[in-house]
Structure formats: C-alpha cells, structure tokens
User: Fold these one by one.
Assistant:
Number 1:
Amino acid sequence: DNFQNINAWYIDIDINETKNITGFEEEMMGLRNKKKGDILGFIFGMDHKAWPSLTIETRNGYQLYWFAKGSCSVEGWHGIEARIYEIFKPLGADKSTIKPVQLMRVPGFRYYKNGEEGNIDIVWPFSTFQLYDEIEIMEVFPPIYKEKVESQEEVKKFYQTLKTYIPSSTNDIFKRVIAMPVG
C-alpha cells in the first residue's frame, strides 16, 4: 500500500550449472566463462533500443537493469517483467528476484554467501545509463498480463454455493469430497 515509485525493470541471470561450485574448479570455471560469454552475446545481439541501462557482472552471471524515467504503473511493471523473464529464461533468469521491492547486490562489494568470499560485482563498460519511459520499454518488451483473479465476492459466492453440496455434519474430508458435484 505504501509503494511509491518504480525505479527500474531488471533481471538476474544465473548460470544454473555452475551456481553451487566453490573454489576454482577448472572445468566448471571454463563452463561459467563460456556461458557468461553467451549471455553477453545475447545482450549485444538485442535491438539497440533495448540495451540495459546498467549491466553488472556477478559471480555467476549478470544483473541487467533498465532505468525508469517518469512514472510506471505497478501492473505495467509486472507485465514488462514477465516478458523480460520469458526472454532471458533460457539463459538462466532467476524468477525469485522479480518483485517490485527487490534489492540486489550493489556493485563494488564482495560477494559473501554460504561462507564463500567471491568476486567483487562490477559495472560493465557497455552500460548505457539510459532512462526509459514505460511506453518505450513496452515497445521492446511487450507486457504479458495474467488473467485477473476473481474478486473476493466471486470467490465467497463460489464457496457458499459449494457448501450446499458438502455435508456440514462431518469433518471427514473424504466424505466431503465425495459429496461434491462432478462436471
């Protein structure tokens, strides 16, 4: 209820195959570097109107940000984020970070997780620092909107109707399920 402003659209891309390695296992580090190269190639291959405002290299991938100019609706943000996720999903996009109030690591700080001291996250030189308004981003990442969930009143009405079929005289869940109408 107190949410004020959308600052950016973003995605965290992690290389799943090398996510849990510790140390510098040569074969896994080679795979990680190859996959990071694939991600950069994908970013450079994008329409230049969609290049990220900020690209941060993390221990196991990249974080991409498109900075917002002006106001953006929360509904619009969710739709755009859903599209960005779908585009980057084959590269290892992390769905768990897609929240309007998500905080990710700040560049220039060392990675500490599970007792491991990792690299310092760095800002890549091809970061544009460009600001995008909601319409510009929607042209590049057409939003994916989920169907609206029924209102609370519709849900209550459904359960009230359902109660007429469920005997209230029993707490046996199986008897209640069997009493439900089929079809």
Note: The mean pLDDT is 79.
Number 2:
Amino acid sequence: MDLKIIYEDKDLLVADKPAGIDVAELSKMLPENYFLIHRLDKNTSGVILVAKNEEALIFFQKQFTNRDIEKRYLALVVGEVGEEKGRVEALIGRSPKDRTKQKVYLPLEPGAQNQRKAITDYKVIEKFEKYTLLEVYPKSGRKHQIRVHMAHIHHPVAGDEMYGFKGQVCPKGLHRQFLHASFLKVKMPNGEIKEFKSELPENLKQILLNL
C-alpha cells in the first residue's frame, strides 16, 4: 500500500490512513517489528501512529491510556446541531443484541454497572441544510465512541450505516461515514511536543462543496 507519510523518525511513523482499510489489514502490511499504536475504524480516515520498536509502542500507548493525547476529528452529522458547542458524557459498552456494535447504557439499565464512561466534546464548524459539520474532541478512547455518542444525541454521522437511523438522509456521493481524524498532539520520547495534521480527503471536501 502506498501510504502517505506525515512524519517519520527512528521511533515513530505517522501515516495518513485512507478510508476502507481495516487496521488489522494495515498491521499485516507493516514491516516486521512495526506496531500500530492505536485504532481507527475501517471507514474513518486520517492520522494514525505506528511505533517502530517495542519501547516506542509502550511509550506512546501509555499516553493514550492516560488520556494525555489530544485528538481532533471532523464529522459531518445529520440534522442541525442547535448549540455551538457541547459535551456527550455517557456509558458505552458492547451491545448484547449485536456483538459487532457498541451502545450507550443508561445509568439504571441492566449491565450499566459493567460499562465504562466515555466523554466526547464538540463544536460547530459550519451548518448546512440537513447537516452540521463538527470538530470533535474525544476525551476517552472507547470503540466507535464518536459514532455512538453522535447517534445518542440524535445526530448520527452522515453515511454511517451501522449507527445511522433507518431511512436517514445521506449526501449524494458519500459512500462512507463522514469521519476524519484530523489532528493528534503527542509528547515525544525526548520530551518535545509534536502536532500532526491531516487534511480532509478530496472526496469529503467535494461533499461539503456540494452541500
């Protein structure tokens, strides 16, 4: 695979993952002793970190575990988001009805005591007819977190077939969920703070232009 490389040094490789590539598939394509540090959903594009040795893997994964990494995503969601910024704070866990999906658990719901709290902040970037473009800041790292939280507040990510509502509108030409990992801020082994950015892919830019 011809991955676009954003940054590389002796410990870290930062790539721009295209949509449609599963992280398991991506892992198999990496050189021996290279390790994915975190995950992106198959149909989410953007910044992904790769450790070039085990020491770097442990160093960077600890930052994710401790929530020391600053992450930003761009998401086009269905409907008009009224407030200019907001926070979703809700328990997320595996759905008992479909083990491939996650769901929000209400505090008194059966099984809620076994689930983990997840926090997602967001702000409005631009409003369109039937859609809103958000910059999203996940404060935790639960599986499918942004997609589940946006659906929970009745603004599912546009093009999201798993968590979208039955019969929901979808922009013409959008064949994936409109979710892009645009920014990561990390501490390097030498103590330096680095920021890595990924531009919105051309096909998603075109969707916004069409709107």
Note: The longest strand covers residues 116-128.
Number 3:
Amino acid sequence: SRVFDFCAGYGGRLFGAMACDKVKSYTCSEVNFETYSNLHDLYRTFRLHREVEKEVSIFNQDSILAMKQFADKSFDFCFTSPPYFNAEIYSDDSSQSCNRYKSYSGWFEGFLIKAVQEAMRISEKVGINIANVGGYMIADDLERYLKSENITYKVDKIRMPQYGGDYRYEPIFVI
C-alpha cells in the first residue's frame, strides 16, 4: 500500500497509483524541475476531478539522495523505470544521471546499482522496468549484477504497444 518511485518521469506511475485502490500512499522523486512541476500539476488535476484520498509526496531531488531520507523498509513496494543512460535524454540539466556520469559503466555502477541498492533497503519488494536499448545491455547487466550478489529476483515481461499495432516486450525485474 505504500509505494515509492525513485525516477518518477512524466507521470505514468503516478497516474497508475492514483487509479489503483490498493495504493494508499505514493512517494516519488524527480530530479528535473520542469518534470517535477508537471507531476504536481497532474496530481492537482486528479484531486480536482476525482475524490482522491491518497497521501502523495513528490520530491524534486536526486533519486539516491531522496531514498537516503527513509528508514529501512519504509515502503511496501518500490517500482520505477529508470533512465536508460543516454539512450533517453530528458533534459540537458547537469543533475540528469546521463550528464553526471559520462560513461555507461560509470552510470551503471554510480547511479543504477546504487539506486537499486537503496530501493532494496527502503522497500519490501522492488520492481524495475529496464531494457537493453541504444546499444546498452542494461537489463542483461542488471541481471548479471543480481546473480553475482546472490539477490533473489524474478523477471516478468511487460507488453509495450508500438506504432503500427506491433508490440515489444520489456523485462521487469522483481526483487
């Protein structure tokens, strides 16, 4: 019932949390100020058009720093779709993870793995939607890391509609 999203993005998971009766509170972090402001607008729109009795907290902060504020197992579920290094550019802001880490390996170790570790610390269960994209084998590297650390996980697939009626499938790691 208590959900944390450490890379809130454009609001799809906020939207889902608001629509899901099982979610009692939704907390998220978004480093980009414009996107953070838009998340607040989305939440206000929900409140105007639907009686919503959920606790929502939106932090304009780096993912890892935001999670460090919470005690161990503060949340029931942490679910996110983090940025895919520089395969997706959200802004040229220096706070964006792809701008802070100039190499894929630096980003993977310095951002993604540290964020996953913090998510595992603050949450009972963690779901990460991440794929191999833009020539980066992010999902494969995450799976290799989880295996090397003997972390118990499952991989599920989410069907993503594509233009033209096709679908692609992306992995969701459930830790």
Note: The chain has a mean pLDDT of 88.
